[in-house]
Each structure stands twice: as C-alpha cells, then as structure tokens.
Amino acid sequence: MNDCENLLKQPATPDAEGLKANLLRKGTPERVFVMELFEDEEIKSEVCRIYGIGAEIDPDDPRASQKREIAVQRFLGYDAVCAGLEGLQFDYTFHQVDDTTHGTQKRPERNWMELGRGPVGSWEDFEKYPWPDPSKFRTDALEWYALNLPDDMCICSGSHSVFENVTWLMGYETLCLAIFDQPDFVDAMFEKVGGIFYEGARILAQMPRVDILFGGDDMGFKTGTMIQPDVLEQKSLPWHKKMARLAHDQGKIYMLHSCGNLSEIMEALIEEVKLDGKHSFEDVIETLPQAKERYGDRIAIIGGVDVDLLCRGTESQIRSRVREVVEACQPGGGFCLGSGNTIANYIPVRNYLIMLDEGRKLR
Questions:
Q1: For residue 5, what pLDDT is reported?
Q2: 344, part of any domain
Q3: Which DSSP state fits 34?
Q4: For 27-59, how does the pLDDT look when each residue is reduced to its tens digit (9 = 90+)?
C-alpha cells in the first residue's frame, strides 16, 4: 500500500457554476473550492501513476492528453481544466541547469531566463524577431474541450503575461535601463506584446465553455514591484484593463496570477483594471487571511498554503494551515484553497494531496 492511498477518499464532484458564483462572492459556498494556476506535468503524472488515473485511455488516441487532463482534474477535485491557444508562444533565451528534484518528479533539466539581455534588446532585434501572428492562433484543444468537457466543468484559459513577456524578451536589466534611456523602445515593446495578448484574449472571450480568463503576469518580488509602480500602471495595466473588459463584456471572469508584493498597484488592479480575483501569495509578503481582510470585499482571493510549507512542512502543519486559511477566508465566498503559487514538480505529491484532502473535510 502506498502512503497516499488514505488520501482523497471523500469524493469531490465538480461544480463549475458554484465555482463561478464563489469567485464572484455570491455568498459562502457549502464546500471549499480549490484552484491552481497549474500543476506541473510531473505532479500530474505521479498522481496518475499512484492512483491509476487515465489507465483506460488509449495512448495512441489523438486526444489522449485532453482525456487524461479531464480525468486527473476531476480526481483532484477541480472544477475546470486549463487550456490555451496554440501558436501564442514566444522564443526566449534560456539557461539550462540540472533539475535537483528527487525521484519520479524529476525533469531532464530546469530552464532559467536570461537576466541581462534577451532576444529583443534593440530596434534591429525588434524588426527581425519572429513575433507570434494572431491570425495563426489555433483553438483546436479549446474546441475539443467545448464539445467533450463534462457539463459540471468549465475551461480556464489565460493570455495575460504582458509585463512578464516584455521582461523575458528584453532581459530584466536591459528593460530597467531602457525605461530611462530608450522610453520609445519600451513603449513599442509593451504595445507589441500587449497587442498580441489582447488579440488572444479577444479569441478566448468568445470561446464556448471558457468561463474564466486566468493567466499569469509576475510583476513583483518580496518587497515591491519589479519596476516602478507608475511605469506598470502606465504601460502594462492598461492592457489588463482592456482584456478584463473583453472578458466582462462576454459575461466571463478575469483573474490574475502575479507573484511578489503588489501592494503599490493593488488599488489600480482592483479599481481600474476591474480584476475579479488575485492569485499568488507568499507568507513572508502577505498571508492569505491578511489579503482577504484587505481586499476580500472587492475581489476573490486564491491560494493560501505557502509553497515553502508544502515543500517542507509536516502533515499536521499543512492540515493546520489549511484549517486556519479556510476559517479566515471562506465566509462570504471569494476564496479558493490552493498553493501560494503553483504546484511545482519539487513539491512532494503527498504534501499536495494532504492540502486537498483537508480542504475536502471542511464544510
């Protein structure tokens, strides 16, 4: 018997309509909803291996990955699958290093972004760069899910990473200098990247079963924003405002995952962008109960269990933290239990499942 067999025995039935009502703060839900930006592939593969999820799916089936995704998300208790546009990818400059994760969750290597200068550091680079072409974006997987996803689930899909991609394409150091030395180039980068993501959001907002636009755009670090708050408000947040309007015009929810301390731009995100929910919280910056107290009457707050605790905590510590977070954040709705960031491949699977298991036990 493996040490995970005693977990997740209490069944969890997906309820996409309940999830959406919860995110929009329409009262305290009867159960604890769970949500993540994503789980690393190694985590999902390990869950499938342990519990035999998807074993009946023919690996040669052209839609095997989508069928397995539905099966594993339902098993874990989620109300949605995550899927995006095909063709909305940028070419980056990576550094590759060995992955030090142990066991079956290890991957061949781990990629790190170039800090100094990325592939688009000059006007010449800008002209030569192979920018994604919105006219070639494909929706094959989204269309398949729209027809085959069980009625009690929905699709989360996001294309929000404006600042993050400008940073990766230019290089963080190059961007920081160019804000002062080449403001016209910085403007062009935000206009180009923002426009591409806006076209992606325009497509997603019209896709059936895509009820939540939930994407990542990391804009902060431990003590503040990655660049000056006013620059973010002038150059990046207007694109989020436009994309949020696209979602809202179609009756859909607009969520944002962003790491770091965003306290200096949170009012703009809530009042100007009209964000429906915020994800990614780190205890050393702001705990989820603190965020719920500050912002929970205006937006949904997602997460709550710090990744460091998931990595190194004991079972009793994780269960205790889940209970604390749920007790503080569940009343009134606008809360989903999850990690403080994402379910990275280096999180022990059992610790992840303990978090979900404790959430299922709480009503």
A1: 82
A2: yes
A3: B
A4: 999 999 999 999 999 999 999 999 999 999 999
Q: Which residues contact 95 (CB under 8 A, 6 or more apart)?
A: 111, 112, 113, 114
Whether residue 8 lies inside any domain: the answer is no
Say how many domains are in the chain: 1
- Write out the two tokens for 52: 């035999």
3-state SS class at 94: strand
- 65: number of Cβ within 10 Å: 13
Average pLDDT, the chain: 95
pLDDT at 160: 86
Asked whether residue 3 is assigned to any structural domain, the reply reads: no
Does any domain span residue 4?
Answer: no
CB 328 within 8 A of CB 335: no
The range of the structural domain enclosing residue 153 comes to 16-361
SS3 label, residue 330: coil
Distance CA(160)–CA(269), nearest Å, equals: 13
Ordered strands of the 80-82 beta sheet: 80-82, 154-157, 210-216, 253-257, 277-279, 300-305, 335-339
Q: What is the pTM of this model?
A: 0.95
Question: CATH code at 148?
Answer: 3.20.20.210
